[in-house]
Amino acid sequence: MYFNSNPSSITSGDFNSDNRQDLAITNNNNNNTVSILLGNGDGSFQNQLTYTTGKSAFSVISSDFNNDSKLDLALANAGNNNVGVLLGNGDGTFQTQVTYPTGEFPVSIVSSDFNNDGKTDLAVANYFNNSLSVLLGDGNGNFQSQTIYLTGKRPVSVQAGKLNNDVNVDLVVVNTGSNSISVFLGNGNGTFQTSRTYKTGRNPSYTAIGDFNDDAKLDLVVINFLDHDGTIFLNICP
């Protein structure tokens, strides 16, 4: 498979409604595009189609933002300090991106329903101003202005999950500059509590969420770049 220069992030989904998995890959190094490779269903992919993004799109996700049962894309455009949303047409093509301001140098993006209204929202980690942006969706593919929460230093990754056994989605941010993670418990109305901080190894770069000890509670694992290891946080919520 051929991509454009410096591919930096990838996501998969059925973009043309043929029950086959397709790929979306962001391209950096002044290319500023996202490549769409439609799957043939046999492990091979068609030649790429490209769509213009913002500068330095470091992270891409796919979800249905306008409730039309067609997958859309959202990208963290670090060089433009915004999120780009490309609505899918359901045939493997996408509309021109619409952008929404974030904090400075967004590098990671995640989607979920933060206010329990059945509509998909976005959260973005902003590397240079140590913050998290939350953008609530209206279910038609549009997003409200950001609400900003403070993180640790140099946040590089954000993940979403229900961490304290209620019905509300929470957020976990990895702070590579302060060797920590920030956990934001959701209130269920689109807002989040002040973060709780947990120390990691040196230069943590990514976290995964899962039940690692079979107690029906979601735990965290963080990889530490400089220590060549990982830190596991077992959930002790009642």
Summarize this structure as a short list of keywords or feature phrases.
mainly beta; single chain; 238 residues; 0% helix; four-stranded antiparallel β-sheet; globular
Describe the model.
The protein is mostly beta strands and 238 residues long. The protein contains no helices and 19 strands. It has strands at 7-13, 22-27, 33-37, 49-52, 57-63, 72-77, 82-86, 98-101, 106-112, 121-126, 131-135, 147-150, 155-161, 170-175, 180-184, 196-199, 204-210, 219-224, 229-233. The strands form 5 sheets. A 4-stranded antiparallel beta sheet has the order 1-2-3-4, with no helix packed on it. It has a 4-stranded antiparallel beta sheet with strand order 5-6-7-8, with no helix packed on it. Strand 5 (57-63) and strand 6 form a beta hairpin. The N and C termini lie far apart (48 Å).
Sum this structure up briefly.
The chain has strands at residues 7-13, 22-27, 33-37, 49-52, 57-63, 72-77, 82-86, 98-101, 106-112, 121-126, 131-135, 147-150, 155-161, 170-175, 180-184, 196-199, 204-210, 219-224, 229-233.
